[in-house]
Amino acid sequence: MSTGIIIVTPVYNDWQSFQLLIDALHSLSEHAPYRVDRVIAVNDGSTEPTPKLKAFAKVPISILDLSSNMGHQRAISIGLSYVEAHVSGSDAVIVMDCDGEDRPEDIEVLIGRLQQEAQQTIVFAKRKKRTEGPVFKFFYKLYKLLFNALTSQTLDFGNFSCIPYAFLTRVVSLPEIWNHFSGGIIKSKTPYVSQGTNRGERFEGRSKMNFQDLMLHGLSSISIYLDIVSIRLLLVSALFFGLTLVGLLVFLIVTVISPVSVPSWSSLLVLSAINILTLVVLCSFLILLFQLNQKTTVQLPPKTFYKSFILKVSDV
Fold this sequence. Notes:
This protein is of the alpha/beta class and 316 residues long. It has two domains: 3-210 and 301-315, Spore Coat Polysaccharide Biosynthesis Protein SpsA, Chain A, CATH 3.90.550.10; 226-294. Helix content is 46%, strand content 16%. Strand 1 (3-11), helix 1 (15-29) and strand 2 form a beta-alpha-beta unit. The longest helix is centred in the C-terminal third of the chain and has 31 residues, at 226-256. The chain starts with a strand and ends with a strand.
């Protein structure tokens, strides 16, 4: 018996790639051990006109037109919330980009791993090798190290994933996925595994995500751990503050007792360091207090408000 899947994919001014994705899904599904029950395209405020749905009609499609450009992560949250509320009867939900970098042929790999796990976990696609340039690779490794250092978690996969339909209500009930989908899954301790896949080539054109967008995406993943991050920053800054005080004490002893001459500017340097570290400690403490205060406010999950951002739903 084939596995029924629903595909959720954000689209922003990339309708040619979306058409090629539909063609690939139609071609693959003819011989794959799964069936595509519906593709949910989340039109994330595209400025280009949406082609007529009949042009895509090789598989069932719904296009959700959003009121504005919400960003990749929020478009995913809205799409998943819509599926949870309005689409049923499938076994799993695939989250993927429509540009070809998430390869349609890897859907079968993710579903195979899901079946191995008895549909008791989310399966994320982890890149076995990356084809980006050296600058991107350097900053990506730096980002992974920073994320691990600040959160004690490892994040080495993106959004391409296979979610058991039984997990969907739990996923769209997580407030954190509104800012970062995969980071929110990790923080919630929802069961997940990663499956090695290769990065595909874009169907059409160039990526619309620039360096600034990548930075915001990375910082968004860290922001959902702000409570943990602020505690760690406070402890580290307090440690350096203590070490600086010890250094000041040594400086005073050397100045008063030792015959060794000390440069006059060294005292100014030590006092400046103490002032800077004092500010860092205070800022970290204030950030921690702010984050703890936010815990008194109930955060709403995407499933409770996603409808506010959908202008229109068009079905084939």
